[in-house]
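User: Sequence recovery, please. Input:
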């Protein structure tokens, strides 16, 4: 059972006629997987890039495009606009953005937009020169000022061969933004400075080999995203990860535990809260070969020496800061997590049994236990990492309040 932030939420997915229209299939699939009901509205141009049948099959809803097809249930654009709780337009073409900025409703999608009075999230995607065109930029500013929301396109190599901004933002970013609009994320951490660590570390053996672990960075990145959405300033010290950092986060990339230690130390004075979600290697090879180790017939013995315990060091100099640590365990979860909170001076340890299905490394969900230094533990159900990130930040907010109340 997965906690579905979009369970039962009614989303109108508008698809306009850009080369990225095929990505609407992945977006629709992700929304459906998260429990949303999705009604797709395509422009005529969009049908040149992806078939309605594909989107209809994914969403299990008939796809509409035409204003004037007679319906038994009433006027299409009004019915759909009344039905939807939020509208997501991905991709949004320069043409559609222009029409919206000018108040034009000359097809089903643009007319639904005019008849819709809740949150609309636009995800522009187009050729870089088109995106930078001052008219397009003016239209985006006009719509932003009117309360329309945007997920900016990202930079990269575009289908037309140009490099620059214009690629449709990644699906997870689009869906996270929609979730935060629909679930009304509070701005209750506005101005709070949060230092977050994420991902694994790599401890080199020689110039081409290293010792590492299975951490993907998903938990730490989810905390960073949730914190930014709630108004915090975020510095994310990240070990190697394939994930794109959430917009608005300052990323400090590191590789080894020692580099992570240095980066964390550098930013610790600055922060009000430290969330240590990185899986820092406990040990590193005692010696690092200058050249590639050669294969030999004999056994190779590695001597490992312990890395510094970053969490414990921070705990000793925490002052009024709130420190959240993580513990991946395979047995005696609660007892070990409480002990860790006590020994390391952490205010909260988020522990999870990495042998459980749906918990731990490289999955989108987690099953966590909150453990406190006073011995209390709270078990949480299986939930998405983003939902868990919000629970952790709820807790951080309460701990800060309790700290302030106690002088
Ligand atoms: C191959 C091809 C790719 C296109 N890609 C884009 C695009 O990525 N973004 C965009 O704004 N327009 C793109 N266009 C132009 C739109 O299809 C055109 O402006 C159309 O009128 C948009 O209609 P709509 O906004 O009603 O969907 C493309 C056109 C072609 C032929």
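Assistant: Recovered sequence (407 residues):
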């Amino acid at each position: 059972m997965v906690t579905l932030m979009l369970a039962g939420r009614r989303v109108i997915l508008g698809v306009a006629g850009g080369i990225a229209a095929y990505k609407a299939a992945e977006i629709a699939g992700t929304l459906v997987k998260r429990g949303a009901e999705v009604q797709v509205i395509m422009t005529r141009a969009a049908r040149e890039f992806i078939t309605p049948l594909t989107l209809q099959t994914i969403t299990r809803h008939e796809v509409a495009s035409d204003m004037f097809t007679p319906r038994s249930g009433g006027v299409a654009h009004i019915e759909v606009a009344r039905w939807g709780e939020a509208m997501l337009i991905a991709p949004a073409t320069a043409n559609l953005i222009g029409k919206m900025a000018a108040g034009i409703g000359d097809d089903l999608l643009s007319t639904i937009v005019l008849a819709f009075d809740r949150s609309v999230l636009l995800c522009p995607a187009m050729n870089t020169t088109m995106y930078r065109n001052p008219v397009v930029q003016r239209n985006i500013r006009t719509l932003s000022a009117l309360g329309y929301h945007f997920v900016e396109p990202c930079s990269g190599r575009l289908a037309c061969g140009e490099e620059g901004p214009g690629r449709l933002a990644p699906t997870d970013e689009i869906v996270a933004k929609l979730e935060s609009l629909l679930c009304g994320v509070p701005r209750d951490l506005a101005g709070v400075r949060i230092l977050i660590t994420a991902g694994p570390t790599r401890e080199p053996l020689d110039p081409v080999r290293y010792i590492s672990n299975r951490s993907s960075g998903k938990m730490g990145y989810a905390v960073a995203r949730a914190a930014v959405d709630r108004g915090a300033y975020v510095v994310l010290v990240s070990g190697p990860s394939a994930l794109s950092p959430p917009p608005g986060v300052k990323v400090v990339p590191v590789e080894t535990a020692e580099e992570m230690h240095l980066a964390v130390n550098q930013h610790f004075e600055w922060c009000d809260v430290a969330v240590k979600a990185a899986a820092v290697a406990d040990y590193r090879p005692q010696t690092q070969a200058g050249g590639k180790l050669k294969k030999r017939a004999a056994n190779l013995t590695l001597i490992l020496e312990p890395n510094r315990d970053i969490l414990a060091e921070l705990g000793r100099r925490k002052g009024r800061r709130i420190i959240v640590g993580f513990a991946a365990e395979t047995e005696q979860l609660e007892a070990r997590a409480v002990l860790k909170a006590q020994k390391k001076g952490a205010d909260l340890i988020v522990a999870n049994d990495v042998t459980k299905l749906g918990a731990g490394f490289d999955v989108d969900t987690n099953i966590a236990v909150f453990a406190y230094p006073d011995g209390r533990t709270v078990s949480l159900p299986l939930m998405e990492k983003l939902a868990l990130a919000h629970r952790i930040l709820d807790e951080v907010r309460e701990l800060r309040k309790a700290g302030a109340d106690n002088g």
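The chain is about 35% helix and 20% strand.
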